[in-house]
Structure formats: structure tokens, C-alpha cells
Amino acid sequence: MVPNRPKDSGGIGLAWSSLNQKSFKRDSEFMFQAYYQAHITHATFFEPAISYIPSPGADPSLDAALALTFRVISLF
């Protein structure tokens, strides 16, 4: 994705869940996410991700949810 950074990666995805009607007021929920994984050292990566849930399943009166997360991943 970025020149001279062959170990970096990125992606987008979506998820759909069917929810238990005894626990939630909606019957389903969608989530969209995009991420970029930057290679830092031999086995360490930095990964920011943005997630969006347009209609959270917990309650129909809730507004859309937007979350930004940062992860440091170390493989060993």
C-alpha cells in the first residue's frame, strides 16, 4: 500500500450478527471496520482501526457508534 513498506497491510470488512431477542431489542446488527497494519520491527506491528456500527443492537434509541482503536502486536 505504501511504497518501500512491503510488510504493511490494510483492509476493510463488515460483519452482520443475528442477536438474541431475549437480550437485545434489535434482531440484528451490522459493523464496518477499516484498518492499517504498519510493520515496526522484526515481529512488531502498529495497527490503528476505525469501526462503525450504524444501529447498535442493544437499544433502537442509541445513536450510531464510532470507535477508533490502536493496537501494538508483537509476535513471538
Q: Can you put this structure into words, describing what you see?
A:
The protein contains no helices and four strands. Strands 1-2-3-4 form a four-stranded antiparallel beta sheet, with no helix packed on it. A hairpin with a 2-residue loop joins strand 2 and strand 3. The chain has strands at about 10-20, 30-40, 45-55, 65-75. The mean pLDDT is about 95. It is elongated and about 50 Å long.
What keywords describe this structure?
single chain; 76 residues; mainly beta; 4-stranded antiparallel β-sheet; 0% helix; 58% strand; elongated
Q: Order the strands across the largest sheet as they lie in space.
A: 1-2-3-4
The largest sheet, given as strand count, sense and whether it forms a barrel, is:
4 strands, antiparallel
Share in helix: under 10%
- Assess the beta-strand content as a share of residues: over 45%
- Number of contiguous helices: 0
Please give the alpha-carbon distance between the first and last residues: 25 Å
Q: Which value, in Å, is the CA radius of gyration?
A: 16 Å
Overall pLDDT: 93
Shape: elongated
Low-confidence stretches: none
Encode the helix/strand succession as letters: EEEE
Structural class: mainly beta
